[in-house]
Amino acid sequence: MRKIRKNDEVVIILGRDRGKKGKVLLSIPEDDRLIVKGINMIKRHTKPGRTMRQAGIIEREAPLHVSDVKLICKKCNQPTRVGFRLLEDRSKVRLCKKCHEVID
Questions:
Q1: DSSP string, 49-70
Q2: For residue 42, what are the domain limits?
Q3: What is the number of domains present in the chain?
Q4: pLDDT tens profile 38-67
Q5: Structural domain contains residue 3
Q6: Is 24 among the domain residues?
Q7: Contacts for 30 with CB less than 8 Å, ≥ 6 apart
Q8: How confident is the model at residue 96 (pLDDT cuts 50, 70, 90)?
Q9: Please, are residues 82 and 67 in contact by the beta-carbon 8 Å criterion?
């Protein structure tokens, strides 16, 4: 179980985009990386091909390491660390470390 997942709202805590907020588009758990919408933009110089007809300079998001972001709790609306708790029905849920509320 991952601490930060797809569609979570996060804030960037390190790097040139420090302080910006965004939504997680893709989680890459084997590399501990995330792609966040509108954050860590890079420019790719591409040639036209069979799959990509558009040539030129294309801007897109690059992956960030998971340690460079913090989850924004929906209850307290603050950046927080994530913990885990087992419920009575033996299911494991994520927990906000600041307000101790269940995240999902």
A1: -SS----EEEEEE--EEGGGEE
A2: 9-48+56-79
A3: 1
A4: 999 999 998 888 876 778 998 999 999 999
A5: no
A6: yes
A7: none
A8: very high
A9: no
The enclosing domain of 19 has a CATH number of 2.30.30.30
* Residue 1 confidence (pLDDT) above 70: no
Q: Is 35 helix (H, G, I), strand (E, B) or coil?
A: strand
Structure tokens at 22: 């965004």
Answer yes or no: is 103 within a domain: no
Confidence (pLDDT) at 48: 86
> Rounded CA gap, 47 and 5, in Å?
33
The answer to whether the beta carbons of residues 39 and 23 sit under 8 Å apart is no
Answer yes or no: are the C-beta atoms of 76 and 99 closer than 8 Å. Answer: yes
CA distance 40 to 25: 13
Query: Is 61 among the domain residues?
Result: yes
- Locate tokens 């299911």: which residue? 91
